[in-house]
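Contributing new records

If you add data, match the layout below exactly. Sequence lines come first and carry their own label; structure lines follow with theirs. Keep one chain per record. Anything else will be rejected by the validation script.
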Amino acid sequence: MEFDIEISLKKKKLLNSSFTLNDSLAIVGMSGSGKSLTLKAILGMVPKDMESKVNIDSEYQLKNGENLSFIPQNPFTSLNPMGKIKDQFFCEEKKAIELLKAVGLNEEILERFPAQLSGGQLQRAIIAISLDYEPKLLLLDEPTTALDYDSKDKVLQVIKDLHKEYGFKMIFVAHDIPAVSSVCEDLLVLKDGEIIEFGKMDEVLENPKEAYTKELINSGFKDRQWRK
């Protein structure tokens, strides 16, 4: 699956990105580097005041809600607060229960409202809902940022297990490099809308070519150690 994305605003280039998604890809970079803009481009959600060119060479006709699912950053604002979890699914209850079990939740969750769930439970419920569409490509926009340390690790493990079981391709935008290092096969580093490094996760982490990448890696693992 190949992606060719160009986005500009008043002739100022915001994103110039061409890459191949083999299986699972982590996109990292500092704030404003173009990570979330990449996902918006794939989703067809680029603001109208931006000039965009998005080409996706894929065997699938990617459509949000069909072959394409999206996991947002903040689970607390992602579902209808007035509806029970069972009302957020579009499938029969039997399948909803199966999907909840796949993410480590029991069927009692169906009768609860979003506000009655913890952040980790809520994000796992959202992942279960996204699987209802049987996606070929799953986009994740820093899905663990709003979670505590324990919930973060549970959600990451769920994503790893589901990726292996369901076989979807995955683009995982993150600022936490240690987190995605165990989830994704490849790593892409963005700086000011440009790709400065791209390769196998282990190879980039062990032999980063750019000072910018080294800074991201060092600060990421330092912060991860501190949080322990």
